[in-house]
Amino acid sequence: MKAEVRMRVIKKIESKRITRDSDIKKAADQVAKEMNLKRNVSRGWIWRWKKANGITYRIPTKVGRKTKDTDDDIKAMETYEAQLEEIHLQMVDPSTIWNMDQTSVALQNPYRKTLALKGSNDVPIIQPPGDRENMTVLLMVAADGTKHPAVIVFKGAKKTGVLSTNVMKKLLIPENVIVKSNRKGWWTNDFDLVYLKEAFPVSDTQVTQILLRDQCKAHLSQESADLLEERCVHQVLIPKGKTGDKQPLDVGVNGPFKAIMRRNYHEWMDHQTAVAKSGYLKKPSRQDFVDFVSAAWNEVSPLIIESSFVKAGVLPEPTYMLADYVPDGNAPFEFDFSE
Predict the structure, then answer these.
(1) Is the distance from CB of 144 to CB of 306 less than 8 angstroms?
(2) Which of 130, 164, 296, 320 could form a disulfide with 260 if both were Cys (CB 3.0 to 4.6 A apart)?
(3) What pairing do the DSSP bridges indicate for beta strands 97-106 and 209-213?
(4) Over the stretch 267-309, which tens digit does the pLDDT of each residue have?
(5) Strand locations in 23-176, DSSP E?
(6) Cα–Cα distance measured from residue 142 to residue 253, given in angstroms and rounded to the nearest whole number
(7) Integer distance in angstroms from the first to the last C-alpha of the chain?
């Protein structure tokens, strides 16, 4: 009987359906009836049966990434590696190799735990309430450590879909930050076109540049591709599922940037005194978030950026090893790569 119950329960588990103790009881009652057995399936019997069969309650896991690459994945990766090899062979100037990516950054980073004395019955905190609220931030860097201003995309008003003129006037926006807004707070095709026009302006002495990007929907529009071609920018798309290893921003820039953001948020809480009627700290304002992003982006050094390009396989070795010097502060590397 126990073997038959196991077979039926395992079959339901493998079908990816929610399985509970009541299902074990139902299966055991059915088997007992079919075998003409008088068996009282109690909670104790179910507990002993689960223990004997190595079955317990588990939290369902989410579907993860595929573990095996398809033939198309392998072909796309070979094409991408060939493009990187061409960059290495031609000794492309690092100042002309760019990586651009959007990342989700938390407006507030509430902590789940805090230090407290042992044995305390209550552990009160006054940090801002609610779940984490995320904003889209676009970052763009060159392999020599150059940084374009970070672009923040706020969610706009419900009616208009954008931040009002009065709100924008009140914001004190530093030089290393650009503020945009739309209804959902996402990076769109329109934003992409405007940003590319500003990042790669037309000039008489047009130099071929390289732009590494993931396969986000906004990056795949024909309008963006045509614009980049007109501006002598060769777009290299990183294969799907490989950005964690092959995209410089994901490899070594986004992590330090967000870590600095969390530190800034923690310091902001230590100096915050404005408390809401509920007794909690007020949430960071848009101005606070702009200041967080500006300070964090300013702290990301050229060494961090160039090291990420090396680790992602875009540069064969750090420029400072070739130039035999390390720049001071946030100055990008200056080196004639043709030498």
Answers:
(1) yes
(2) 296
(3) parallel
(4) 887 777 666 666 667 778 899 999 999 999 999 998 899 889 9
(5) 97-106, 134-142, 150-155
(6) 12
(7) 80
